[in-house]
From TrEMBL:
<protein>
    <recommendedName>
        <fullName>DUF1093 domain-containing protein</fullName>
    </recommendedName>
</protein>
<feature type="signal peptide">
    <location>
        <begin position="1"/>
        <end position="19"/>
    </location>
</feature>
<feature type="region of interest" description="Disordered">
    <location>
        <begin position="92"/>
        <end position="119"/>
    </location>
</feature>
<dbReference type="InterPro" id="IPR036166">
    <property type="entry name" value="YxeA-like_sf"/>
</dbReference>
<keyword id="KW-0732">Signal</keyword>
<dbReference type="Pfam" id="PF06486">
    <property type="entry name" value="DUF1093"/>
</dbReference>
<dbReference type="InterPro" id="IPR006542">
    <property type="entry name" value="DUF1093"/>
</dbReference>
Amino acid sequence: MKKIFITLTLALASLFVMSGCQFYDRELKKEVYYTKITTTPEKQTDKEGSSYFEYNQVFVNKNGEKIDLEMKEYRNKPLKKDAYLKAKVTKSDGVKSWEEVEKSKVPDKALDTIEKNEP
């Protein structure tokens, strides 16, 4: 009886740890990606009357791997054209935060991929 209890406890603990790891990977783990703003989208307004700009961007990590993401920016002016962004991205929510960076701060593999994908 004691062995069964220990086995069940270990199995439940393992499931708990595995689900916690999956939650972390999907919801909390932020990976760094880079992109270049190449378009100036039209200003849009949501239901509440707030202005935003919607970007469909190719984001590239330091290894040159690409992902396509949609990014809504609630602001009065669009992002600067030809600006390079460093973004923190989660699998579940996409872009969580970003900052503008100099071209020289973008890793070489990422920069090569970004420049090959420019319109």
